[in-house]
Design a protein that fits this description.
The complex is a heterodimer of chains A (about 270) and B (about 775). Chain A is α+β, with helices and mostly antiparallel strands and about 270 residues long. Chain A is built from five helices and 15 strands. In chain B, helix 10 runs antiparallel to helix 11, helix 19 runs antiparallel to helix 20 and helix 22 packs antiparallel against helix 23. Classes of the chains: A alpha+beta (about 270), B alpha+beta (about 775).
Chain lengths: ~270, ~775
């Protein structure tokens, strides 16, 4: 009995030592690619609630219906506001093009003005609709960039019960850093399903900027799906919680939904 | 009387028998208190003038908290050829970026042309973009920035002067640097020195800079005035006694008084304020007086009674002197406590309190330390006191004064009457005013910077108006926005209000931008939902914190910031009053309410109390002094007599202030109570000695007066010189309020001395009060 114990402990230690050995960790770039290979479905409809909290603890709740569809690598996203009442019917549409050098297209329909207004191409580092995520964060969601960072895999860690690779990214150039607003990032990628679970970021002056936590990950219609993102901005004290519910990958969303005209009519 | 004398004798017997222990304790006490002094923190902000729990101040702090408002460091870039060129715009960018790395500056709270966003309407939308990016800066781009500012009313006067020659960079400090503004100020000066643009000039001012520089400024001033005062006092002491111990002993008294007062302040965590800088000099001048009187008596006794043993000599001196010393100290303490009790403002309350403590320390050292120190050294005579009744030059001068008084008492009375008339007239015309920038000499660079920024831009004095509505998003109601706009229009008609900013200005700009930049739409939108949607639209490309200074997160509270180009109370007060009455008559209702706050409101509120506090303090000091002297002389008329010279001295000062156009301000408002407390000493000594000579010894008038002038008169002359010259040292201070305070007290003390030496004996001669038993 004793010998079995010794053998099993030794085997276990061997396994642990090989997996924690840096030489056996996957390369950061490989992990990044893996996050892009994950199945996200073609179209998705969900109820998206954004809770924004300022540093004094005051909260703004915005309930929306959010639609998303991939056209190859191009991503179209439409958000229809339901509350608060003053912005009910307001709708936001964005076309994210895969080529970073092509500006994304964005529109906002304002029912009180009965007009759709084009929004200037946002910088990738601009904040998305008053939240603590940037346009780039929203575009990538639970994936990590393929082109912006030089990666280094730091090790493995258990996050909320799931083994994750820790990847550190430094922007390839100063220009990229300035554009993104990040001087350094650290990602925790689920080693099993290749989904981003947690991220820490620092600004260009290396001040701790944000913590992002992606939780409530469950399979919905066979697709791994997160239900909550929590973001804390350490510099401003501002927080955002994104809550997803009623997620549906199966209903086919008509291409007409992602047009300026459709914004006016609402859902 | 006899039992009292016995008590006194046995007390000093005890003291002289334990002189070594007392000396040891005295030294230990000074050292222990002084050890706390390095712990002292300085507070030069204008908030310091109100107690921390004052409702006006707490409301202002709440407003600051809600809207994230700070008192910034303001850097002005002045280019007489205009700022819209690549060089100046590049300088704005370089400075804005460099400021982020300055310790103590909040890197996210820098406001300049480079950091702020422009709102532009495009054919089919709205763009929120920086005015310029550094890598696309060209001559054409510079012109674009100029047009953008011309189109953006909000930033005209606040970010760029209306004549385009000046642009501002505002930098806010981190809260953790609250009492270390001088460190940030120093780093900024250093930073600005590394930029020497050849076509423009850099200036640094603003409330943050004023507070920062003041800390440094009063430090340097203290390093200069305090040693100078000690030297002046020592020189007087050399003239008075021409003996080493005559210089050393009073100087140790000074150390004790100043050391214990400041050490206790530091130990109790009381901040050092701008006017506290005057306290050491004031205490130096006062603390030395007890020593002068005791040593005068000591040397007189050594020359009159060469047969006395060391102990007999010290006992004789102390038994004779304890009474006037205690009474004069109590009256001086009363003066300081009157300042403390009458003032609502912490800097003055503490000035009075710790001034009183310093004087008390001096009294304790006079009673315990001086006799102990004299026991340690052998009896000694002074060349100034000769045994054969000959008087020196100073004594002769005083004797001559006595002759004049006996000859012309009625002329003296007439002059006093005239001073009273002029003084009452002056008091009624006193001008209450204050301006923080006058804490510096007019040739200081910060004063010039302040003047340039105030003349070129909308100014750096802020009046905030806190607007409150009952429900979330109520600020969006067009009615409420209209009211805010009307209030702004009204405020901008008031003198010295140069500009105002509120959320309404941003909304009007957004409305115009979303209507193809049509100027007709530069107005408040008429639909509440539209306004909410504008903000959502803005958040699609703007920073979520852009409006933090103007509206709260629930859209329930708003802030209107008015800018004034002056920090003078006389201009601030009418504006606050006008806005308050406008709010009461035209603004406040069940659905919206506004309250004035901000630096201008705080100023108007506390300076308003200065006048009342001043007269209250003076009245209180007079009353206490009257009570103390009436009780100690056991005669009301004798008490009344003692306060005549000080009353006249204060009235005289009112005339001087009117003639020289000196404001009743923070520093100067304290003069009366303190001048009364100190100045009354001459009268106390005079009454005490005249009574002794006339009543107790029963000398004829002429002889009594001659005796009085050549002995007590001479000691009082040196006492007066020490006080007047000590306070004159404050006149060399580079902090104008302190130098004016020193000047006024020095003049008041002179008038009190002259009054006590002339008017008081003249009144005694003419009215022959029973107390002196003059006809005997």
């Amino acid at each position: 009995m004793k010998t079995y114990k010794i053998i099993s402990v030794t085997v276990l230690m061997l396994i642990l030592s090989t997996t924690t050995n840096a030489q056996n960790l996957p390369l950061g770039q490989h992990i990044a690619e893996k996050t892009h290979e994950r199945n996200e479905g073609i179209s998705m409809k969900r109820k998206l609630t954004m809770a924004l909290k300022d540093k004094r603890g005051k909260v703004r709740i915005r309930e929306t219906i959010s639609l998303r569809k991939y056209y190859g690598k191009e991503k179209r996203l439409a958000i229809f506001y339901e509350t608060p009442r003053s912005v009910q019917g307001t709708a936001f549409l964005t076309y994210d093009y895969p080529n970073a050098s092509v500006d994304d297209d964005q529109w906002l329909y304002m029912p009180a003005l009965r007009k759709t207004r084009r929004i200037s191409a946002a910088n990738r580092g601009d904040y998305f609709l008053g939240t603590d995520l940037t346009y780039e964060d929203i575009k990538l969601e639970t994936r990590i960039s393929l082109d912006d960072y030089n990666y280094k895999t730091l090790g493995k860690e258990i996050i909320k019960g799931q083994a994750c690779f820790i990847v550190e990214g430094t922007p390839k150039t100063k220009e990229i850093a300035k554009e993104l607003g990040y001087g350094k990032v650290k990602f925790w990628i689920d080693a099993k399903i290749w989904m981003l679970r947690k991220a820490e970021s620092w600004d260009v002056a290396q001040n701790h900027l944000k913590t992002i936590e992606i939780t409530d990950v469950k399979q919905v219609q066979g697709i791994w799906t997160y239900h909550k993102i929590f973001v804390k901005n350490h510099k401003t004290g501002h927080e955002t919680i994104f809550l997803n519910s009623d997620i549906d990958y199966q209903t086919n969303i008509s291409d007409d939904t992602f047009t300026k005209e459709a914004l006016v009519n609402g859902l | 009387m006899k039992t009292q004398n016995n008590t006194v004798v046995s007390f000093f017997n005890y003291v002289t028998s334990h002189h070594k222990v007392i000396l040891f304790i005295s030294a230990a006490l000074i050292i222990c208190s002084a050890l706390f002094i390095p712990k002292m923190t300085k507070d030069t902000s204008y908030d310091a003038f109100l107690p921390k729990d004052d409702p006006i101040l707490t409301f202002r702090n709440k407003t600051k908290e809600v809207f994230g408002l700070k008192d910034p460091m303001v850097i002005a870039i002045v280019n007489e050829n205009g700022v819209f060129n690549t060089k100046t715009l590049k300088l704005v960018q370089e400075l804005s970026d460099a400021l982020k790395t300055v310790k103590g500056i909040d890197p996210d709270q820098i406001t300049s042309l480079y950091t702020e966003n422009n709102i532009v309407g495009t054919e089919d939308g709205l763009e929120v973009n920086p005015f310029y990016e550094i890598d696309e800066l060209s001559n054409d781009k510079a012109k674009d920035v100029k047009h953008a500012i011309n189109d953006f009313e909000l930033y005209q006067g606040s970010l760029v002067s209306k004549d385009h020659t000046t642009t501002l960079i505002l930098a806010e400090m981190l809260d953790t640097y609250d009492k270390k503004q001088h460190e940030v100020y120093k780093s900024l000066i250093k930073l600005l020195d590394t930029y020497q643009p050849n076509n423009s000039k850099l200036y640094l001012a603003g409330e943050g800079a004023v507070s920062g520089y003041l800390i440094k400024y009063i430090d340097e001033d203290a390093m200069k005035t305090n040693p100078f005062a000690a030297v002046v006092i020592s020189i007087i002491l050399i003239f008075a006694y021409r003996r080493l111990r005559g210089v050393v002993i009073p100087n140790i008294m000074v150390l004790a008084s100043v050391g214990i007062a400041l050490g206790t302040m530091a130990a109790f965590g009381v901040d050092f304020y701008v006017i506290t800088n005057g306290l050491p000099v004031v205490l130096i001048a006062i603390a030395v007086a007890d020593g002068i009187h005791i040593l005068g008596e000591y040397y007189e006794a050594t020359s009159m009674h060469p047969e006395f043993s060391q102990k007999e000599l010290v006992m004789h001196t102390m038994v004779n002197m304890w009474r006037p010393i205690v009474i004069t100290s109590i009256t001086t303490i009363a003066g300081f406590l009157a300042v403390s009790a009458s003032s609502y403002m912490p800097p003055m309350t503490y000035f009075g309190l710790f001034g009183a403590l310093g004087v008390f320390a001096a009294l304790v050292y006079a009673v315990f330390f001086i006799p102990s120190a004299l026991m340690l050294v052998k009896p000694q005579t002074s060349k100034a006191y000769k045994s054969d009744q000959k008087v020196d030059r100073f004594g002769k001068i005083m004797e001559f004064v006595g002759v004049l008084v006996i000859k012309y008492p009625r002329v003296i009375l007439a002059v006093a009457f005239l001073i009273i008339l002029f003084g009452i007239n002056g008091a009624s015309k006193l001008e209450i005013n204050e301006d923080r920038i006058t804490n510096f000499q007019s040739d200081e660079s910060i004063v010039k910077a302040d003047a340039i920024i105030n003349s070129k831009t909308d100014g750096t004095s802020y009046l905030d108006i806190y607007v409150e509505t009952p429900e979330n998003e109520d600020i969006f109601k067009p009615n409420n926005l209209q009211k805010i706009q009307d209030l702004q229009y009204y405020a901008e008609t008031l003198p010295h209000v140069k500009g105002s900013i509120s959320i309404v200005d941003f909304l009007k700009k957004m409305n115009q931008s979303l209507h193809e930049n049509n100027p007709e739409y530069y107005k408040v939108p008429e639909n509440k939902d539209l306004i909410a949607q504008y903000f959502l639209l803005y958040s699609a490309s703007g920073d979520p914190t852009d409006f933090d200074n103007y509206v709260d997160y629930d859209y329930r509270l708003a802030n209107i910031r008015l800018r004034m180009d002056t920090g003078k109370y006389e201009f601030e007060k009418p504006v606050v009053d006008a806005i308050n009455s406008y709010l009461g008559n035209n603004f406040n209702s069940d659905t919206i309410k506004a309250t004035t706050t901000g630096k201008v409101t705080v100023d108007a509120y506390w300076i308003n109390r200065l006048g009342f506090n001043h007269f209250l303090g003076a009245g209180l000091a007079l009353l206490v002094v009257l009570l103390v002297s009436a009780l100690s002389f056991r005669s009301f008329s004798a008490g009344l007599l003692t306060i005549i010279p000080v009353s006249i001295s204060v009235l005289f000062i009112y005339t001087v202030m009117g003639l020289l156009n000196i404001w009743l301000a923070v520093g100067t408002s304290m003069f009366a109570a303190i001048a009364i407390g100190i100045g009354v000493d001459f009268a106390v000594h005079t009454v005490d000695r005249l009574k002794f000579l006339l009543n107790d010894q029963g000398l004829p008038v002429k002889q009594a007066y001659s005796e009085f002038y050549k002995s007590a008169g001479r000691a009082l002359l040196f006492n007066f010189l020490a006080l007047a010259l000590g306070f004159s040292v404050l006149m060399t201070s580079s902090v104008p309020p302190l130098s004016k305070f020193g000047f006024l007290v020095a003049v008041a003390v002179s008038v009190s001395f002259i009054g006590s030496m002339t008017l008081l004996p003249a009144i005694v001669l003419v009215s022959k009060p029973k107390f002196f038993n003059i006809n005997k």
